[in-house]
Amino acid sequence: MPPILRFSLCLMLLALCASQASATQITRLDTRTMAQSSSDIVIGKVTGTQARWNDAHTKIVTDVQVEVAEALKGGATTTLTLTQLGGEVDGARYSVPGCPAFRSGEEVLLFVWRDTQGRAQVNGLSQGKFEIERDAKTGEATVQRSLPGLAVRDAKSLAAKPTTGSAGRVKLSELKSAILEALSTEGAGR
Asked: How far is the CA of 52 from the CAs of 80, 101, 112, in angstroms?
């Protein structure tokens, strides 16, 4: 086969593969939208994760157990189990781009929605998970999203943090205030 024909065939195969590729697109949500579209908003600590097959044995899901320290929205509960697509079971791995990852022991603020079966899931994919970090000297709590491209610089708008420079953090107290303000205007139609 002539080199030019071989090259053309490779280009056509690459174009075909590229057109088949897909990506997760996330619409950036502000605090008001996140708060008002969530059934629960909680602050807590991840106590464990367990990947498993769904009942039909067609997908892998991961259950994330959270010990709730404070509920900003939703029923008063001491524990919350999130169920999300993805995980690893029996050497099989199922990944969903944009889904948050969880580690036992991490402290989080979560925006949660419930599906038709009542299963709790993180709202807005990774947008709904904020990792809490406490200053060792002052005890002041700050939050930030860990997924690249979703870091925020402002508690109210959740405006994107520029990709250059340090990640920076938002005070937990500021984010809580912005959430409570959004919830207070939920029924006002503003």
From this structure: 17, 15, 21
Please give the domain boundaries of the chain with CATH numbers for all domains: 27-185 (2.40.50)
> Which residue(s) pair with 70 in the sheet?
43
| C-alpha pair distances (Å), 29 with each of 50, 68, 84, 123 | 28, 24, 20, 10
Rounded to 5 degrees, what angle do the CA atoms 129, 132, 138 make? Answer: 165
d(CA 90, CA 22): 26
pLDDT digit string, tens, across residues 152-170 = 666 666 766 666 555 578 8
Give per-residue pLDDT as tens, 88-125: 998 999 888 888 999 999 999 999 999 898 889 999 88
Q: pTM for this structure?
A: 0.79
The three-state secondary structure class of 80 is strand
